[in-house]
Amino acid sequence: MQEKYIDETKQGEAFAIAEKSGNSKKLFLESYGCQMNFSDSEIVASILNEQGYNTTLKQEEADLILLNTCSIREKAEQTVRMRLAQFKNLKKEKPNLTVGVLGCMAERLKTKFLDEEQLVDLVVGPDAYRDLPNLLKETDDGRDAINVILSKEETYADINPVRLGGNGVTAFVTITRGCDNMCTFCVVPFTRGRERSRDPHSIIEECLDLWNNGYKEITLLGQNVDSYLWYGGGPKKDFAKASEMQKLTAVNFAQLMEMVATAVPNMRIRFSTSNPQDMSLDVFRVMAKHNNICKYVHLPVQSGSDRILDLMNRQHTRQEYLDLIRKAKEIVPDISFSQDMIIGFCTETEEDHQDTLSLMREVEYDYGYMFAYSERPGTPAHKKMEDDIPADVKQRRLAEVIALQGELSKKRMASYVGRVHEILIEGVSKKNKNQWKGRNSQNAVCVFDMKEGQKIGDLVSVFVHGNTQGTLLGETVL
Description:
By secondary structure, the protein is an alpha/beta fold. It is about 35% helix and about 20% strand. The strands form six sheets. Strands 1, 2, 3, 4, 5, 6 and 7 form a seven-stranded mixed sheet that branches. A five-stranded mixed beta barrel has the order 18-19-20-22-21. Strands 8-11-14 form a three-stranded parallel sheet, with helices on both faces.
């Protein structure tokens, strides 16, 4: 399933944590792509912190450089390859420098990466991070090291992630790994393996720990959080083989949400990413019941055409998707939605394209993540379908989708004007150092003038008096 993506046009993001006394080696860790990769980087930093590595923001002082990569689109892989090229001179200056590639790109290319990128010493897939200490010993002995074995069990539930950078207010909590939804365009099932869920008690413990350390908002994270199903461990696909007791005591996503909301009643809770076919109305009922669960869902649709949805193997129809949206709005009247949309998928016609535009108008998304179709090697679409939509047609259709989403976003932002919203202060506005920025329950960004006594992490009441296409403008209610 396609995830919610951080802007991959950026070079990547490097983070550092407080130094651990006694550590003598330096790790430069850069993450690309989805939120799962950024969360995984925190696990990697935790593992290596125990192996003598403190993180650094300066690549020139690093003993170990790791890139946590994304493989969902061709552009993401190109960005990583260009970044690796920038390290060649550094490696000449520091012959003992170790360079490694982690994540989905490592999983997809495997040993091919060592042949293609001569400066890469280490290739590690998403399920093999515990093996990093052993792999680094191999590189110390002058050998290339690789572990891309996918696991049916690994959830890293017992590893307490270090929080890399960030604002000290919001954090990711991973609840599932892998994906069983074989969308024909998507490489994730092949790079992250089968769906498996994390022990709910370890999730609660992590949430409580975050609250006790001053965090005010968590995002429950997974390739497909709606598929969360804990029955004692193992892949979701094996649930049919579980014992009667395991089935009776199993915890699904709605139940997990109830548990988390109750355990940390003053913590804001979000979740991402969702899949329409697996979304239960019980999730919306729990959302309506608990004020601390934010009234926002990222619900990828990918296309408004039934024919294209079938080719994508999306397991839901246009009408089923619209019915789900309608019922959700009945249960949670102030809910907001965002979308993922793939434009120009194989054989897409103008009629298919118009179906997408009409669905967007009917749903009225707050915002979206929209991309022209990019053929990914190894996926069913790559093997069985022709990428037959000309680039100029893709770009024209994409521009139309983006323009429409812009109109819808402005309309949705305007609907929040004239009301008081509870805003969590996340930081200082990039455009005005005298203003705070934060988000309301519906995930809309709001900026407002600073007031004496306010600080990052405060929940404040803000009257929204105006808006732009993507931002609310407000003032604190005294």
